[in-house]
Amino acid sequence: MTATNSEEAAVRSLMDNFVAAFNSGDVDAIMKNYVPDNSFVLFDVVPRQEYMGAEAYRKAWTEMFTHFKGKPKIAITELSVIVGGNVAFGHSFQHLTGTDLQGNPVDRWVRVTDGYRKIGDNWLIAHEHISVPVDFKTGKAAPFSH
Predict the structure, then answer these.
(1) What is the DSSP string of 24-62?
(2) Report field, pTM of the whole predicted structure over 0.85
(3) Is the pLDDT of residue 125 over 80?
(4) What's the CA gap between 107 and 99, in Å, rounded?
């Protein structure tokens, strides 16, 4: 395995760790996948929401889990990773399923772009952008195809 392939495998392992942490509902384990300081930035899918710093995002994760009965699940598909030195970029489709507090099923797909930094021997998510396609004529989310 070349160094680049090894680094790509490490980023993919990070994303596997994220999925396992999310699916267990463990916010502390989720946050171990992100840069732990104020340099972290997220642009979320919710209207005009951005999080600056890991602590703000930790609060958002904690709050997000309160909207579900039980533990929601996430799956990542079509993950593409490109590594260059101590930075990498990835994009994927992520599928969230669960049951909301009113007992309604939740079934959402989002597109996610991540920027990664290698700090010491560890890859961490330094920037995340979550989006859904929008039909500009209606202003509503467009049917999702991937």
Answers:
(1) HT-HHHHHTTB--STT-EEE-SSTT-EEESHHHHHHHHH
(2) yes
(3) yes
(4) 9
